[in-house]
Prior knowledge:
Blueprint: H1 2-18, H2 26-35, H3 39-42, E1 47-53, E2 61-68, E3 71-76, E4 84-88, H4 90-97, H5 103-109, E5 113-117, H6 121-127
Amino acid sequence: xxxxxxxxxxxxxxxxxxxxxxxxxxxxxxxxxxxxxxxxxxxxxxxxxxxxxxxxxxxxxxxxxxxxxxxxxxxxxxxxxxxxxxxxxxxxxxxxxxxxxxxxxxxxxxxxxxxxxxxxxxxxxxxxxxxxxxxxxxxx
Length: 140
């Protein structure tokens, strides 16, 4: 009886951690990449990263981040030519942003994210961002 109660409580806690607000939109967070992009850090670098979300309801779809000529743009849809493609669920992305899933070590090894192309492209993108601490974003 006690064991069952403890298991139920543990499951409730896990569900709370995995809960995504109905207002959560991956596009809102992807737009922050453009907002916090620092053209000085990127200089003349070219980089194309595709984010593909699956099994995520309204958040399903592809978005492409393009960096060229010290400019960063976000477009809905998948670019045929890309340096890096990240394939994940919106829940995994939410956990990475909130710091509940360590992007650098755990996301790839647990299968939460699949990479196609250059696996270091996402890390390179993070070097071009200047995210204020008050945003509390682990990485984008």
